[in-house]
Design brief:
Number of strands: 18
Strand order of the largest sheet: 2-8-7-4-5
Shape: rod-shaped
Number of helices: 1
Largest sheet: 5 strands, mixed
Strand content: over 45%
Distance between the termini: 74 Å
Length: 202
Amino acid sequence: LQIEGDSVFCEGDSLVLSVAGEAIAAGYQMAWEFENQSDIQTNITIGSPGSVILNGIYNGCATADTLEVVEILLPVVGGPFDLVGCEGDTLSLDAFLTDASYLWAQNGSVDPSISVWAPGQYSVEVEKDGCFNYFDYEVEFLEIPVFELQEADPLCEGESLTLNIGVTADRYQWSNGSSGPSTVVNYPGGNLTASAFNQNCA
């Protein structure tokens, strides 16, 4: 009496165990035992690890076969999976896992990491111990605000002038401490600098 079938399966899968054909042909009376349950079918589907016992009776004599079923966890990489860079940057997507193999869908690379400079979704297949898992990376590149402050005419005593950066951004910073898209300059004026940021891109 013998159990036929694999003893290892990947997390989320299952395996089918069967009775060896010789036992069926010989006319054994058989019953499976697994997780305190019994089944008299010739095949049994297993979806969790543990001991599987096949009991048989032939000509009044009892016999049994036991198989230890092992579940292998799917490979898991740490991310991050949502990455934001600045226009013109290059980002590294890292799927490294010890003793794993890789296949990136976009360029066919088999390296654990790839460099990207365009927005979009990037996918990698990771295999370890015969089990596969899949991961998606969402990549965004933010536009850098571009502007130029125009030189203003000299101010007369008592006059003021409003300067505008003239570009949409998340955050602004003027050298006089202002933090809006515009600032007021009073007589006698002076040299001002400004920065505009999309998140940390400037």
